[in-house]
Design goal:
25% helix, alpha+beta, six-stranded mixed sheet, globular, 152 residues, Nuclear Transport Factor 2, Chain: A, 3 helices, single chain, 6 strands, disordered N terminus
Length: 152
Protein backbone atom coordinates (compact mmCIF):
# COMPACT_ATOMS: atom_id res chain seq x y z
CA UNK A 1 0.00 0.00 0.00
CA UNK A 2 1.25 3.51 -0.89
CA UNK A 3 2.05 5.80 2.02
CA UNK A 4 0.71 9.14 0.73
CA UNK A 5 2.60 11.04 3.43
CA UNK A 6 5.96 9.76 2.12
CA UNK A 7 7.09 11.77 -0.94
CA UNK A 8 9.53 9.04 -1.95
CA UNK A 9 6.67 6.58 -2.50
CA UNK A 10 5.06 7.91 -5.69
CA UNK A 11 3.20 5.31 -7.73
CA UNK A 12 0.34 4.83 -10.19
CA UNK A 13 -2.23 6.36 -7.79
CA UNK A 14 -0.16 9.56 -7.76
CA UNK A 15 -0.05 9.57 -11.55
CA UNK A 16 -3.84 9.13 -11.64
CA UNK A 17 -4.38 11.92 -9.10
CA UNK A 18 -2.45 14.35 -11.31
CA UNK A 19 -4.42 13.24 -14.38
CA UNK A 20 -7.66 13.76 -12.45
CA UNK A 21 -6.69 17.35 -11.58
CA UNK A 22 -6.12 18.08 -15.27
CA UNK A 23 -9.50 16.56 -16.15
CA UNK A 24 -11.20 18.46 -13.33
CA UNK A 25 -9.97 21.77 -14.75
CA UNK A 26 -11.67 21.01 -18.10
CA UNK A 27 -14.90 20.00 -16.37
CA UNK A 28 -15.03 23.17 -14.29
CA UNK A 29 -14.41 25.46 -17.28
CA UNK A 30 -17.06 23.68 -19.36
CA UNK A 31 -19.53 23.77 -16.47
CA UNK A 32 -18.97 27.51 -16.04
CA UNK A 33 -17.94 26.89 -12.42
CA UNK A 34 -15.46 29.72 -12.03
CA UNK A 35 -15.56 29.56 -8.23
CA UNK A 36 -14.57 25.91 -8.55
CA UNK A 37 -11.68 26.92 -10.81
CA UNK A 38 -10.58 29.41 -8.16
CA UNK A 39 -10.62 26.62 -5.58
CA UNK A 40 -8.80 24.18 -7.87
CA UNK A 41 -6.05 26.70 -8.64
CA UNK A 42 -5.99 28.42 -5.23
CA UNK A 43 -2.37 27.43 -4.58
CA UNK A 44 -1.21 27.95 -8.16
CA UNK A 45 0.05 30.59 -10.51
CA UNK A 46 -2.08 30.78 -13.67
CA UNK A 47 -0.12 31.95 -16.70
CA UNK A 48 -2.08 32.65 -19.85
CA UNK A 49 -2.07 35.52 -22.31
CA UNK A 50 -2.20 38.23 -19.64
CA UNK A 51 -0.47 38.98 -16.38
CA UNK A 52 0.23 35.83 -14.31
CA UNK A 53 -2.40 35.41 -11.61
CA UNK A 54 -2.12 33.88 -8.16
CA UNK A 55 -4.83 32.93 -5.71
CA UNK A 56 -8.45 31.87 -5.64
CA UNK A 57 -10.08 35.29 -6.02
CA UNK A 58 -7.84 36.58 -8.83
CA UNK A 59 -8.24 33.42 -10.89
CA UNK A 60 -12.02 33.25 -10.38
CA UNK A 61 -12.35 36.92 -11.32
CA UNK A 62 -10.30 36.47 -14.50
CA UNK A 63 -12.54 33.65 -15.73
CA UNK A 64 -15.67 35.58 -14.78
CA UNK A 65 -14.45 38.70 -16.59
CA UNK A 66 -13.26 36.99 -19.77
CA UNK A 67 -15.41 33.89 -20.48
CA UNK A 68 -18.99 34.31 -21.72
CA UNK A 69 -21.58 32.13 -19.96
CA UNK A 70 -24.96 31.45 -21.55
CA UNK A 71 -28.45 30.97 -20.09
CA UNK A 72 -27.57 27.44 -18.96
CA UNK A 73 -24.65 28.88 -16.95
CA UNK A 74 -21.99 27.33 -19.19
CA UNK A 75 -19.76 28.71 -21.94
CA UNK A 76 -21.14 25.99 -24.25
CA UNK A 77 -17.62 24.61 -24.73
CA UNK A 78 -15.90 21.28 -24.52
CA UNK A 79 -12.22 21.28 -23.53
CA UNK A 80 -10.55 18.12 -24.82
CA UNK A 81 -7.20 17.33 -23.19
CA UNK A 82 -4.97 14.84 -24.98
CA UNK A 83 -1.35 13.72 -25.39
CA UNK A 84 -0.92 13.80 -21.63
CA UNK A 85 2.58 13.19 -20.29
CA UNK A 86 3.03 13.19 -16.50
CA UNK A 87 6.43 13.05 -14.83
CA UNK A 88 6.63 12.39 -11.09
CA UNK A 89 9.60 13.54 -9.02
CA UNK A 90 9.83 10.90 -6.32
CA UNK A 91 12.12 12.57 -3.78
CA UNK A 92 10.43 15.96 -3.98
CA UNK A 93 6.76 14.89 -4.05
CA UNK A 94 6.22 17.07 -7.11
CA UNK A 95 5.13 16.45 -10.68
CA UNK A 96 5.01 18.11 -14.06
CA UNK A 97 2.63 17.47 -16.93
CA UNK A 98 2.37 18.44 -20.57
CA UNK A 99 -0.77 18.09 -22.63
CA UNK A 100 -2.62 19.39 -25.65
CA UNK A 101 -5.95 21.18 -25.37
CA UNK A 102 -8.59 21.55 -28.07
CA UNK A 103 -11.61 23.75 -27.34
CA UNK A 104 -14.87 23.06 -29.14
CA UNK A 105 -17.97 25.27 -29.02
CA UNK A 106 -21.51 25.11 -30.35
CA UNK A 107 -24.54 27.38 -29.95
CA UNK A 108 -27.94 27.36 -31.65
CA UNK A 109 -26.62 29.99 -34.10
CA UNK A 110 -23.08 28.57 -34.19
CA UNK A 111 -22.35 25.10 -35.59
CA UNK A 112 -19.95 22.89 -33.67
CA UNK A 113 -16.42 24.10 -34.33
CA UNK A 114 -12.93 24.18 -32.95
CA UNK A 115 -12.29 27.63 -31.50
CA UNK A 116 -8.81 27.14 -30.01
CA UNK A 117 -5.99 24.65 -29.62
CA UNK A 118 -2.78 24.74 -27.68
CA UNK A 119 -0.70 23.30 -24.87
CA UNK A 120 -0.83 23.10 -21.10
CA UNK A 121 2.36 22.96 -19.03
CA UNK A 122 1.52 22.19 -15.41
CA UNK A 123 3.32 21.79 -12.10
CA UNK A 124 1.94 19.99 -9.07
CA UNK A 125 2.89 19.30 -5.48
CA UNK A 126 1.68 16.83 -2.90
CA UNK A 127 0.93 18.38 0.49
CA UNK A 128 -0.46 16.37 3.39
CA UNK A 129 -1.05 13.44 1.02
CA UNK A 130 -3.07 15.45 -1.54
CA UNK A 131 -2.00 16.63 -4.98
CA UNK A 132 -2.67 20.19 -6.13
CA UNK A 133 -1.72 22.54 -8.94
CA UNK A 134 1.19 24.90 -8.29
CA UNK A 135 1.28 26.29 -11.84
CA UNK A 136 -0.86 26.13 -14.97
CA UNK A 137 0.72 27.61 -18.08
CA UNK A 138 -1.62 27.90 -21.08
CA UNK A 139 -0.21 28.53 -24.53
CA UNK A 140 -2.80 28.81 -27.30
CA UNK A 141 -1.14 28.15 -30.65
CA UNK A 142 -4.16 27.97 -32.96
CA UNK A 143 -7.06 30.38 -32.64
CA UNK A 144 -10.41 30.22 -34.36
CA UNK A 145 -13.59 32.23 -33.83
CA UNK A 146 -13.67 33.03 -30.09
CA UNK A 147 -16.20 35.86 -30.46
CA UNK A 148 -18.87 33.73 -28.75
CA UNK A 149 -16.50 32.51 -26.04
CA UNK A 150 -14.39 35.43 -24.82
CA UNK A 151 -15.42 38.96 -23.88
CA UNK A 152 -13.80 41.81 -25.76
Amino acid sequence: MTDLSDPTDLTAPDHRAVENLIARYAELVDDGDFAGLGDLLADAVFIGSGTPLRGREAIERMFHDTVIRYEDGTPRTQHVTTNLAVELDHPAGTATARSYVTVLQALPELPLQTIAAGRYHDRFARTDGRWHFTERRVRITLLGNTRHHLRG
